[in-house]
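User: Continuing from earlier, I have the next pair ready.

Assistant: Great, send them over.

User: Here they are, in order.

Assistant: Folding the first of the pair now:
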Amino acid sequence: MSSLTEAKKSLSESELDNLIIESLAARDRAYCPYSKFSVGAALLTEDGTIIKGCNVENASYGLTICAERNAICQAVAGGRQKFKAIVISGDVGDKFITPCGACRQTLVEFGVDWDVYLAKPNKQYCKTTVASLIPNSFTPNDLIS
C-alpha cells in the first residue's frame, strides 16, 4: 500500500469475513418468488456500521429492487452516505455475481473510490472497486460547473 488513505480503507480478514457472512444472511432473506434468484448485500459504512439488503421482487417486475440498492437506501435513510465497502453475494455457479447497471450507477453516486467484493455461497470472493465496475462514469461531479 502506498498511502495512509489506502491503508485506512483496507479491510481486515475478520471484517471481510463478517461482511461476507452478513451478505449471505441477507441473501437468505431475499424475496424472489418469481426468479428464484436470491442476492444479498452487506454495506460497510465509514463509521463501521453494517447495513444489509436483499433483492425484493414484485409481480410488476419493474418494481423489483436489487440487494445493493436496498442496502444503499437503508443506509441513506439511516443518515449514512459514506461507504467503505460492500459485499454482494449470489449463486451463479462458477462465476461471481456482479451488480446490474442500475446498481452500478447507484454505487457511483456515493463515490468511485471504495471496494466491492463479489462473493459465492462458499465464501470465495473477488475484490474490485466501484470505479472498475463503471469506468468513465457519470458522477455528481459532472453536474458541477
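And the other member of the pair:
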Amino acid sequence: GGITAEEAKKSSHLNIVGMVGSIDNDFCGTDMTIGTDSALHRIMEIVDAITTTAQSHQRTFVLEVMGRHCGYLALITALACGADWVFIPESPPEDNWEDHLCRRLTE
C-alpha cells in the first residue's frame, strides 16, 4: 500500500538517484547515457578489425549498429571512421538514394 509517516522518517537519510542505462543514447535531458560510450568503443574496435580486410579484398563492407529509433551510434561511428554512407532514423534517405549510392560505389 502506502508508506507511513513513521516509515518515511526512518528512511529519510536515503538518497536515491535513478540512472539510465541504454546504449541508444535516446534519453532526453542527458548528454550521454550509461553504456553509450562503451558501445561506441566496441564498435570502433570492430571497424578497426574489418577495415584491413575490406581494403585488402577491395570490398565494401556494410556495418549495422544497434540504436533502435536513435541514430547516435551510427552517426558517431560514421564520423569517427570516415564512412561514405550512413542511414539513421532521424534523417530517412531521400528518393533514389540507391542510384546515388551506386554512383559513389562506382567512383
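Worth noting for the second one:
The radius of gyration is 22 Å. The chain has a mean pLDDT of 89.
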